[in-house]
Amino acid sequence: MPFWKKNGSADELSISQEPDTASLSSKATSVSSSVPKKGLVKRHTPFDAPVNPIKPPVFDLTDDQLAKYNDVLEYFEEYIKENIPVSDSSNAETHPILEEEKAWLTKECFLRYLRATKWKVEPTIKRIKDTMVWRRTFGVVTVPGHSDPRKIITPELVEAENVTGKNLIVGYDNDNRPCLYLRNGYQNTSASLRQVQHLVFMLERVIQFMPPGQDGLALLIDFKAAPAHLNLSSKFPSLSISKQVLHILQNHYPERLGRGLFTNIPWIGYTFFKLVGPFIDPYTRSKTIYDQPFENFVPKEQLDKEFNGMLDFEYIHDVYWKEMNQMAERKQALYKSNFRRLGGKIGLSEYDLRRQHEESEA
């Protein structure tokens, strides 16, 4: 799924006819660069950990910021005792807050929203509450007895979107951010709600790949066309879909983008950026870097040879998709286990939630 999207409800999107997932995945689409290079390491799956050492987070809050953080924490300590809507429908039923929703309300989560609102307490509270309902509505969180099974965002729901490897989680940047690659040239479907669901699914997955001490991601957008024999589209996403994704990123994943890198931008791409530019907040825009070598930001040990790295990465869908999801689920299981072991309360640090049990005990 290409990158930009904001505002506009899902109802505005025309749902395209979807290809059959089973028949697509069985083809085991593979893509790799053919540039020869000595000492390359063959790889078909994501990396489990970054090259650089894990470091604990440094919060470094002023007295005023700490007071505002405590105000938000105290509010949600009471809020989690309530039932909240199962969707954004005006007449939606309510349901108690789930364990996974409490585990999402971490110290870093509160701080991300506080920074996004320039440390304003009331807007922070409202945005977090809105996101909690959005996560239920969009199918990120499953509410027992209420969520429509057909709309829950699962690997099975979005798999057909990724059979060409247009979105990849591979490696970590120099600051230990997991790298999510968006490869515009490998687009294999028409604009649809499922494209948006696919991007949200991959965002959730890349968050699960974050190591202890890191709560941001590196977004690497490559506009290079796929090999001609694959007969794939390099078209830019529609403006309406782009606006919707931007809305989701800015409102429900604030402060998650640590770095955005763009490469192989065609001339029409700059026109596209001018169109979507007004919908991108200035702080997010300040994190984007255009046409600089990826090797300046990603260790060569975890970077593909196409970008002058030491990987000979080949995307084989049946191999990558299964392993990527299993790795993410193992990491999420550790996160949930740590949440319970540390008392199951909100405001825990993601650093402790992501660490291995032995490290946490030490």
From TrEMBL:
Coiled coil residues, start to end: none
Listed Low complexity bias regions: 21-35
Any one biological process term the GO annotation gives: response to xenobiotic stimulus
Keywords from the named record: Endoplasmic reticulum, Microsome
SMART domains per the UniProt record, alphabetical: CRAL_TRIO_N, SEC14
CRAL-TRIO domain mapped to chain residues: 157-315
Stored PROSITE patterns: CRAL_TRIO
Bilayer-crossing regions: none
A Pfam family this chain is assigned to: CRAL_TRIO_N
Predominant cellular place of this UniProt entry's protein: other
GO molecular function, one term: phosphatidylinositol transfer activity
Record localization: Microsome
Region spans: Disordered: 1-37
Catalytic activity: a 1,2-diacyl-sn-glycero-3-phospho-(1D-myo-inositol)(in) = a 1,2-diacyl-sn-glycero-3-phospho-(1D-myo-inositol)(out)
GO terms under cellular component: cell periphery
InterPro entries from the UniProt entry: CRAL-TRIO_dom, CRAL-TRIO_dom_sf, CRAL/TRIO_N_dom, CRAL/TRIO_N_dom_sf, PI_Transfer_CRAL-TRIO
CDD domains: SEC14 (cd00170)
UniProt-recorded name of the protein: SEC14 homolog 3
Organism from which the protein derives: Candidozyma auris
